[in-house]
Write a structure and sequence with these properties.
Elements: E1 4-6, E2 10-15, H1 21-31, E3 38-42, H2 43-56, E4 60-65, H3 72-81, E5 84-87, H4 90-97, E6 106-108, H5 115-123, E7 128-131, H6 134-143, E8 148-153, E9 160-162, H7 175-185, E10 189-195, E11 199-201, H8 205-223, E12 230-232, H9 246-259, E13 266-269, H10 273-276, E14 280-293, E15 300-307, H11 316-320, E16 326-329, E17 337-343, E18 352-360, E19 367-371, E20 391-397, H12 398-405
Parallel strand pairs: 2-20, 3-20, 4-5, 4-13, 5-6, 7-8, 8-10, 10-12, 12-13, 15-17
Antiparallel strand pairs: 1-2, 3-14, 9-11, 14-15, 14-19, 16-19, 17-18
Helix pairs in contact: 2-3, 8-9
Length: about 425
């Protein structure tokens, strides 16, 4: 087996048998230099997530939230599996259209859209889009008059990793009816209701409440001559190892059966972290170390370790997504444990991964692994202070590849840099046996 590269960042390999991430990490840490961090991406994990979604919520068509992780292999894999896409900008729309995805598989799910992005969507036949204010309606009418509009209401979970209600969504009782009236007066085509309970939701009954609000607004709109046919239940679904969508799917399915028994209403969603969180494992390395002594006793008070990745790169998820990274060690470290602080490599004191964690003593060049690092990490990373971003090593089992190969071509020549002979033309050429 050998790797092919895509833009020098993503490397893909077919392997026989199931994907064994710990074994892959052991192999790579023995072969690669210790200077740069890297990711191991398990494509099989994404495929399993999609299969679980279809099995547990067969009526809900997932529209992957591109902002969560816009890695081309992720998007291409989901495109081939039949998922659709939630795009928030002209750039994200362009990325998905470049995969050969039909415009009708995209929802422009940003309630506040720049005028130039509306013009781009209109020129590329991306018609389904959200709104939550009357001013946005006038803008849409000007730049995309035949848009298929979806009114975003606010119904937020009390427990969510990233609440969104302060920024987006109208009140479903007071504001929403007025906005539907305004759209009717402007002769705009509103086709349904959307909501987002908050990213990383852990208050699943809120979906039931939000779907009931949507039912009321479907009925109200009918009085104005609308025939809504789309319900978008947003995101918020868990994706880390050890989580499942069993509970939330039961609540969603029960609510749909009660409030939307008519199967002519199309139901979609906007999962992001569900698909990618557990598919990416980050491997870092101890580059520097400092021992802090107690000034009174002279004993070790704290160990400080400096890794080759930090909050300006992969661990931006600490700042922007409120994540608590899950650390594990590679090797036989043992003996006495110490209070330890984990830092990133930059010169900024904000660059702290863990303030206090109990660890055995680590040495320079020890590897440190972080699981569940696929959501809201890669797209936000920057090479601050000149430190390189991690490469992504992608793995797919032969069984999964054969299944995917039977579905469709996953990528298009537009994904590739034609100046490099070994870049991929389509998904089956990602891997070279």
């Amino acid at each position: 087996m050998k790797f092919l590269t895509q833009n020098e960042t993503e490397l893909v390999q077919i392997v026989d048998g199931p994907i064994n991430v710990p074994a892959i990490i052991d192999q790579l840490t023995n072969e690669l230099p210790t200077e740069e961090p890297f990711y191991v991406m398990n494509i099989d994990d994404i495929v399993r997530k999609h299969q679980a979604w279809i099995e547990k919520m067969p009526r809900v068509v997932p529209h992957y939230a591109v902002k969560c992780n816009d890695t081309e292999v992720v998007c291409a894999t989901l495109a081939a599996l039949g998922a659709s896409f939630d795009c928030a900008s002209k750039g994200e729309i362009a990325k998905i259209l470049a995969l050969g995805v039909s415009p009708d598989r995209i929802i422009f799910a940003n309630p506040m859209k720049p005028s130039s992005h509306l013009r781009y969507a209109n020129a590329n036949n991306v018609k389904t889009m959200t709104f939550d204010s009357e001013i946005e309606l006038h803008k849409v009418r000007k730049f995309c008059p035949d848009a298929k509009l979806v009114l975003r209401i606010r119904c937020e979970a009390e427990k969510a990793q990233c609440p969104l209600g302060k920024k987006f969504g109208c009140d479903p009782v007071e504001e929403a009816p007025q906005l539907i009236k305004a759209a009717r007066s402007l002769n705009l085509d509103v086709i349904g209701i959307s909501f987002h309970v908050g990213s990383g939701c852990s208050d699943f009954p809120i979906y039931y409440k939000a779907i009931s609000f949507a039912r009321d607004l479907f009925d109200y709109a009918k009085q104005l001559g609308y025939e809504f046919n789309l319900l978008d239940i947003g995101g918020g679904f868990p994706g880390d190892h050890g989580t499942s969508i069993d509970e939330v799917s039961l609540i969603v399915n029960t609510a749909l059966d009660k409030f939307f028994p008519d199967k002519s209403v199309r139901v979609i969603s906007e999962p992001g972290r569900y698909y990618v969180a557990s598919a990416f494992t980050l491997i870092t390395n101890v580059q520097s170390k400092r021992t802090c002594l107690n000034p009174v006793t002279g004993t070790v008070d704290r160990m400080m370790y400096y890794l080759n990745d930090g909050v300006y790169a992969s661990f931006n998820c600490i700042l922007y997504d409120h994540q608590v990274p899950k650390l594990r060690l590679i090797g036989q470290q043992g003996g006495k444990t110490y209070k330890s602080t984990i830092w990133g490599p930059s010169c900024d004191a904000l660059d702290q991964i863990a303030e206090t964690i109990i660890l055995p003593e680590l040495q320079i060049d020890d590897w440190v692994v972080f699981d569940d690092m696929g959501a809201y990490t890669i797209p936000v990373a920057s090479p601050f202070n000149g430190f390189p971003l991690p490469k992504v090593f992608c793995y797919v089992s032969k069984d999964t590849w054969d299944m995917m190969d039977n579905l469709t071509t996953l990528a298009d020549e537009s994904l590739c840099n034609s100046s490099t002979a070994d870049l991929m033309i389509n998904y089956e050429n990602v891997v070279c046996a």
